[in-house]
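Quick question: what would this complex look like in 3D?
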Amino acid sequence: MSAEAQSTRPAPPKKSVKPYLITIAIIGFTIFAAQQVGFSIAELGSNLANAREFLAKFWPPDWEWAREEVPGPLIETFQIAILAAIIGCLVALPMAFWASRLTSPNRWFYYIVKSFLNVIRTIPDIFWAMLFVVAVGFGAFAGTLALIIFSLSIMGKLLSETIDSVDPGPLEAAKASGARHTPAVRSSVMPQVLPNYVAYGLYIFELDIRASTVLGIVGAGGIGRLLEAQRAFFRFDRIMAVVIIIFIVVFAIEQVSVYVRRRLV
Amino acid sequence: MIEFRNVSVIYRGGVKALQNIDLTIGDGEFVVIVGLSGAGKSTLLRALNGLVPVTEGSIKIDGREVVGASSRELREIRSEIGMIFQTFNLVLRTSVLNNVLMGRLSKVPLWRSTLGIWPDEHKEIAFQSLERVGIVEKTYVRASDLSGGQQQRVGIARGLAQEPKVLLADEPVASLDPVTSHVVMRDLQRINQEMGITTLINLHFLDLARAYGERMIGLREGKLIYDGNIADVDDRTFREIYGRAITPDDIKESQQ
């Protein structure tokens, strides 16, 4: 008998029609949704034809006004972002350990903290800002509180998922030596996730800077309140100046943060 | 003295990992436990320090009952038992010294271990432990920069830093090459002889068991098949433990 006859080669698996059906369904839904929201390329094109007129309102940016008015709120934006990132990440540190199956002291703690983090994450940052404006009044304090919650929810999720995936061996070793839960986790799991923690912290600071630029729109302080005020007066040239400054600042911070994060992890 | 009395461990799902084990191990003994994967070797060691809950029976260490111990009693029992793992279980992102100091966690207050501020006498114990296994020059090196054999010696030093009465080694050389395996086995043997620490070692390979063991315990499907001097182990005993004759696969030297 030949070798071919002896070996039983498997028949190729049957081709499924599923991927095709899914692709058709996605295309169909996209077209349906576009019709529902009134998405029209023709309209977009005719509007773009008026681009010159449109852009003229934005150009040239009012730098003279910006020089006077932007620094104060811009610094406030920074302060909100730094404060919120630091406080949010500090509060998130123990919570992330409680929200991981590996390091939670017991199952109840795990479910409660995990659910709490899930719930606060479903509420968008701008909505938190609106809530805190009502609770503590207009201004940067409301914005800071909103972004603390925002930072906490993101760090809680990212870090607890990182903890879930670490090597559990060192923790078993620490437990086997008779260590209590907290010192065991601190010495065996913490060193494994510390670089990630710092990297996530920087990333969250980036997100906070971006988020704090729009908080002012709901009256929660920062540079966004300039946007809101000037929009009310149709001063698009001033808005343009603010937008350019925001762009440069956010871009610069991101570059530094990306560089530092790459060296960390 | 370690006493197993009628010990059974049944895992969720009904797997009988240990069945009615009776065993007495005297102070300072060097015991090798052999058996196939899944024979219950790991469970035997982990039942001893309470990492695996015992379903039935009694385990006493110097008269202290492990089965049903409160979490505080369990921590006290564990603090006197060093454990060495197949995969070393080091924290790779920190220094050798910090890894060895993990063996001292149960001896210092929470704030000290949290802030990493260790009293000099604890550091001294860590240094002495590293000297015992001959790698004190690596004290400030990151654990990830060490070879497998060096990492396992750090693992042993971490166990020694507990100043234990008992050392449990779960397949300590299964991840190492033959030459390094002998170095680590000799370390364990020397530590047992010099310090009189009762030592229980799970081994997969028979030649290592023969070269270093005095007393051998053979497990098969959770049952105690053999308990006696390793010099007396013949082919028949071997077949009982492994369910077949010796093949080159059972000898570490022929593994490369």
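Answer marked as accepted. Chain B is about 35% helix and 25% strand.
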